[in-house]
């Protein structure tokens, strides 16, 4: 006779914890939701206010200044394709979500990465957490977002920040820990304080690696924002989701191509910034 072990009620514990957090911190989550929604609406309205050719000209100028003329021409061509496909407004909505989610993720990740680089105990404790976060399927992050913030773009921001944060933490920690010991010893010899070593030696030397982490965060944010269309997020993801529901493969591929164009533009732009910092 087989021995039956009692089933661990892990799902019930998680549901109970989410219910408790939702009820106890509802005031906090509502406040965060209002502030986040205001930021989303403000940035989205500002980008929508610009005419299509105006935003294309601004992005082309940024690409030319940061990278080269080839990237500027490619940016104009790619954005023109999105405009021609009638996906300009969804692209703006997706860009808004990516920008806000990336800013929030980086604002949290860089201080955590610096702290983990300077504290061996914190480093050992946070690495398994990051492994867990990066191994968890992306769809799972949508589940706790709904009870906290409901359906919509705020929940998408919440899930995207959690999903896209680990690379920025990892690369920040890696960059600081890879600063040559000789430079640290030289700073110590000149009597530099811990803060001076961090701001004038470790962070400047690790900046290219930190930028690589930010690049990965942007790419993960873009992929998660598309997935978050399942919980009501606006943008290109909602166009893909709508095409799936209505069995319109052509519309789905058009929205997918627009996502690829936006991803390539953001990737090349951040890589160019990284190369500038390296040089």
UniProtKB/TrEMBL annotation:
Pfam families on file: BPD_transp_1
Domain of life per record: Bacteria
InterPro entries hit by this protein: MetI-like (IPR000515), MetI-like_sf (IPR035906)
Subcellular location(s) per record: Cell membrane
Keyword Transmembrane helix set for record: yes
Protein name: Glycine betaine/proline transport system permease protein
Domain ABC transmembrane type-1, first and last residues per copy: 91-270
Family under the similarity heading: Belongs to the binding-protein-dependent transport system permease family.
Membrane-crossing residue ranges in chain numbering: 53-83, 95-118, 138-163, 205-232, 252-270
Record keywords, A-Z: Cell membrane, Membrane, Transmembrane, Transmembrane helix, Transport
Molecular function terms, GO-annotated: amine transmembrane transporter activity; carnitine transmembrane transporter activity
Gene Ontology CC annotations of this record: ATP-binding cassette (ABC) transporter complex
Membrane topology: Multi-pass membrane protein
PROSITE patterns according to UniProt: ABC_TM1
Gene Ontology process terms (BP): choline transport; glycine betaine transport
């Amino acid at each position: 006779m087989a021995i039956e072990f009692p089933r661990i009620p892990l799902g019930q514990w998680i549901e109970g914890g989410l219910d408790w957090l939702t009820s106890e911190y509802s005031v906090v989550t509502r406040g965060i939701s209002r502030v986040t929604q205001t930021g989303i609406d403000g940035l989205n309205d500002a980008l929508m206010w610009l005419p299509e050719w105006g935003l294309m000209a601004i992005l082309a100028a940024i690409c030319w200044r940061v990278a080269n003329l080839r990237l500027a021409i490619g940016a104009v061509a790619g954005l023109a394709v999105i405009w021609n496909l009638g996906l300009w407004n969804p692209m703006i909505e997706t860009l808004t979500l990516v920008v806000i989610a990336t800013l929030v993720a980086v604002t949290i990740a860089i201080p955590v990465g610096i702290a983990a680089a300077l504290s061996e105990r914190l480093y050992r404790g946070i690495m398994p957490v990051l492994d867990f976060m990066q191994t968890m399927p992306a769809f799972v992050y949508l589940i706790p977002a709904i009870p906290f913030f409901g359906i919509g773009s705020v929940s998408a921001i919440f899930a995207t920040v959690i999903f896209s944060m680990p690379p920025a933490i990892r690369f920040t920690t890696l960059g600081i820990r890879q600063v040559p010991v000789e430079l640290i010893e030289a700073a110590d010899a000149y009597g530099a304080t811990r803060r001076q070593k961090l701001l004038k030696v470790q962070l400047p030397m690790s900046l290219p690696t930190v930028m690589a982490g930010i690049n990965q965060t942007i790419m993960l944010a873009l992929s998660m924002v598309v997935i978050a269309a399942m919980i009501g997020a606006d943008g290109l993801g909602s166009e893909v989701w709508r095409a799936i529901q209505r069995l319109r493969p052509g519309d789905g591929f058009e929205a997918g191509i627009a996502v690829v164009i936006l991803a390539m533009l953001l990737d090349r732009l951040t890589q160019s910034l990284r190369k500038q910092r390296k040089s």
